[in-house]
Automatic annotation (TrEMBL):
Residues 13-132 form the Fe-S metabolism associated domain. Transmembrane segments: none annotated. This is Fe-S metabolism protein SufE. Belongs to the SufE family. It comes from the Bacteria. It comes from Stutzerimonas stutzeri.
Length: 137
């Protein structure tokens, strides 16, 4: 756990202490509400993540060799999943992004059993978009 970004450590500790799915679902909603809002111009087709059932927008920028992403979704639960994924990847380099395993991360959080196949595919699509942005730079 020591190699995790601080926000990921916080997420891991918070979600592992949750007593069941209902509490984790509430936590997801709270984490989704913490996402930094995207400007209307950022909610463009160019930033739309392909492969998600609900609309998910993602923007990323590299600062000092590390990637920082922001995103949002129309779906409240998806915003929460996106928030904990962003917590896991914030500040990573392009090579580190390649090694992230979405299903392992959500399993550590205690969320994998409740992830529908379409939500899991959506989170994998978001990670794929992050990797594409990082490799294009």
């Amino acid at each position: 756990m020591s190699d995790l970004p601080e926000a990921a450590k916080e997420a891991l500790q918070t979600f592992q202490q949750a007593a069941g799915w209902e509490q984790r679902a509430r936590l997801l909603m709270q984490w989704g509400d913490r996402l930094q809002p995207l400007a209307d111009a950022e909610r463009s087709d160019a930033n739309l993540v392909a492969g998600c059932d609900s609309k998910v927008w993602l923007v990323g920028e590299r600062r000092d060799g590390h990637w920082h992403f922001r995103g949002t979704s129309e779906a409240r639960l998806l915003r929460g999943l996106l928030a904990v994924l962003l917590a896991r990847v914030d500040g990573l380099g392009a090579c580190e992004l390649q090694r992230i395993d979405v299903s392992e991360w959500f399993s550590q959080l205690g969320l994998s059993r409740q992830l529908s196949p379409s939500r899991a595919n959506g989170m994998n699509a978001v990670l794929g978009r992050m990797r594409a942005l990082a490799s294009a730079d």
